[in-house]
Please model this.
Amino acid sequence: MAFLYLASVSVALAMIDLDTHTLPNRIVLPAYPVAAVLLAGGALLTESPGRLLTALVGAATLFGLYLILALAYSGGMGLGDVKLAGLLGLYLGWLGWAPLVVGAFSAFLLGGLFSLVLVITRKANRKSGIPFGPWMLVGAWLGIFCGEVIAIRYLSLFGLA
Model:
């Protein structure tokens, strides 16, 4: 149920961010308590209360990292991205460390590649504003569905898995 709720929020936020370059508080902020309740219910049903701790650590980690990025360069990332990062960190952290890392890194990789294509095709320049929320969401869903597999394959390249 928790991830179905995230799916519906993801679609709404991606569409809004693409259209207005904003991630509205009236969608992101209420998603935190809803996610907490649904993920707590999932942890109880699966008898894995430790997932709640990793979810909280994931939320705090991504929120903190994005806050640092937003404060370091005020013209880049907005506070909507910071708030969304915390929410996505909650879900990714609930799944584990590999989905969290893959989901977080994928957003930057995919968003960067997209931006590079726009610059190469001259549809944007270095100063163009490109909404990052959709890339955060795509990266998170990549982490949700493929995080474990991607992490294992990546680590096996270096003989670590």
Helices lie at 2-20, 25-45, 50-72, 79-95, 97-120, 133-157. The first helix runs from residue 2 to 20. The chain has a mean pLDDT of 95.
